[in-house]
Amino acid sequence: MEHSSFSALLVSGQPDGTFRREIRRQSVSGLPPGDLLVRVSYSSLNFKDALAATGRHGVARGYPLTPGIDAADYTAKWTGSIRAPATGKFIFMVQNHGFVNVKLDGKNIISSWANPNDALFAQ
Question: Cα separation of 111 and 95, whole Å?
Fold first, then answer.
């Protein structure tokens, strides 16, 4: 399902020096090139971004600001091809702060759900 917009917290400075926080629809086309849009069921602000949302000086580079979120219960899916430059062994690596599952040609190659002690890379 293709989405053209998403809900985001927007923090903006006001002429009187206060800061306004509101949930607004943002356009996917306005994201920086290379950003990944994931479907999120639950989210929260981390400490630094919550502090930036208060307007405290020195925390954010500038306003308006769309703070980052800590996502929970999300899925990111990519389907495509990886072309190896030569024959041989290659390493797939995932960096994540939770459980992760990676499939290649329908076969689990990384599965910290099945075994949380597994290293998050496969050869």
Answer: 13
Q: How far apart are CA 118 and CA 17, in angstroms?
A: 50
The H or E element spanning position 52 is: helix 47-53
For residue 34, count other CB atoms closer than 10 A to its CB.
5
* Distance (Å) of CA 58 to CA 14, 53, 70, 72: 17, 12, 21, 28
At 97 the three-state DSSP class reads coil
Contact 104, 47 (CB under 8 A): no
Low pLDDT (below 50) residues in the chain = 1
Our measurement of the distance from residue 80's CA atom to the centroid of its chain's CA atoms, rounded to an integer in Å, reads 20
